[in-house]
Every structure is written in C-alpha cells, then in structure tokens.
Amino acid sequence: MQTKDCLTIYGEQIKSRLLIGSALYPSPDIMTQSIVASGAEIVTVSLRRQQSAAAGDDFWQLIKNTGLKILPNTAGCHSVKEAITLAKMCREVFATDWIKLELIGDDYNLQPDPFALLEAAKILINDGFKVLPYCTDDLVLCQRLNELGCEVLMPWGAPIGTGKGLLNSYNLKTIRERLPDTTLIVDAGLGLPSHACQALEMGYDAVLLNSAIAGAGCPITMSRAFKASVEAGRFAYKAKAMPEKDVAAPSTPTMGMPFWHQQ
Amino acid sequence: MNITINGELLNVNSKALVEVLQRFGAVAPFAVAVNGEFIPQSQHSNYVLNEGDSVELLSPIQGG
Fold first, then answer.
1. A46 in contact with chain B, both atoms CB, cutoff 8 A
2. ipTM over 0.85
3. Which of A6, A176, A217, A227 sits in a 20 to 30 Å window from A52, CA-based?
C-alpha cells in the first residue's frame, strides 16, 4: 500500500483502515495481543461508574501502553443530555476532542436515534468536538450530519454485535456515491473478514469493529484476518473492479482453436 | 447531608466536592458530573454540593 493512501479523520492521516474496540475479550492479555495484531491505530474506549479503581486503572494502563489514538464513545446513552455530558467527561479523561457519538433510539436492535443524533452532533460541534456519529444507513441523515460539520460518518452494517455483515449494500453504496469526499466508516454488525473487505471494496474508507474479533474462537488470529481483509478490500477498490456482465465471455483466446472446432 | 454517588446513598459531613470524592476513594483518572451536568476538574476545588445531589464518578472502561 502506498504511504500516501491514508484514512483521513478530521485532518489526521491514519495508515490503518481498521478501527478496533477494546471490549468483550476473554482476557486483558488477549485484548492487548488482538489490538496489536490488528494493526489498528485507533482504539475505542468508554467511561463507566468507578467500581473497582484498581481494575479500571489496569485496563487504562494496558490501552495507554499500546500507544494508539483513543476514540471514546457515548455507548449506552439514550438522550441528548446524557450524550453531551458523557462526551464532555470523555474529553477531560482521554484528552481528545474526538468522540464516537452513540445515541440509542431502540433497545431491541440498539438502532441509533437519528433525530437526537442530529441535535447532539450540532451541540458538540459548536463546543469544539470532532464528532464521529454512529448512524443508520439513511442517506438523508448522513447528508444532514455532514452538513452540520461531521467530517466522518459511521453508518452501521448491521445492528451492534450481530455479525450479520452489510445488510443493505444498496444504501451503503448510495451514501458513498452521494458523499464522495466524506470519510465513511462502516461501524457495527460485521462478523467476518469478508464483510470488512466488501465495505472497503465499495469505497468505504475504513471499518470499525469489536465483537467479530473479541468473540472469535481465536481473537488474535481473527484480528490478523481482519487486518488482511481491509488491505485486500482497499487494493481492490483502488484497482477498480471489472464490469459485471450477464453473458459469459471466454477468457481463453478463440483464435487458433484446435481440430474439434476447425471449419 | 445525604448525597448519592454512583447510585449509592452517602451521608457526608462536608459539602465540598473534593472531600466527598476523597471519602469515596476516587482514583484518577476520572471525570465527575453532578445532577447530570459535567463538572470540569478545574472547578472541583470550589464546587459545593447540596442536599440530595447525585454525583457520578466515571473512569475508563472497555468500549466498542
């Protein structure tokens, strides 16, 4: 991969097109090894009530030791007020203006609330945040978020943790087509490296995932698989795929056919 | 005075936020909100709590 072919997040150049979560791993050691094996340069974290101070600090030390960029999230927030407060707390603790804005609208499929998302994004952008909204694959919602100043959009592939892949590739393709200059990251719902590859093949700039690696039988090996898949997908996008055809076309030359087709 | 911190009811003698955090055993790094409003670290030393206030003390955790 050419070094200039980078993912751009609010002006920062990132070489890896895989963003990785830090949750759900079988152990802290496997978490660390999986994150390192993924080649990711950005890792997602969150904030929760301080229960066991020592355990929380251990986790934070491990993440800090990776040296990766931190992307805090507002996971679990159901209202604009909750999300704004949590974003401000994240900014102070993690010392970053980046925020993965999550605002849940429905507890059944953890679908983002598009209306609250727009409201919260507007407030946070005005407060100096660099907002990365986790949103549905609705074109108009993506356009509105972009118009508000979200330079990165993160439509879902499928509901969080389902591993179903890209449920609506038409919608995702349309968003890519209509927002050609916006950094687009498929976030959530991926289960297989092939899902990540598909997203990159269709021109998405990156993917963000967690469960697909953390929930695999061998997270470290799966992490390597995802690293390879995003690289393959990006190469394929840059290479421009052949046009699909409905009629067969021989790949072997027909000139000089042997005796059984001689006239 | 009674306050709530991370959902637990706590009877405190001091109204000073920093003293209440110390008594709770807060360990850095953390961020604080009172009644759902973020209180920046720069304001902790002067912040005065009121009866019934709800304090949230949050620290880093795994996220996806």
1. yes
2. yes
3. A217
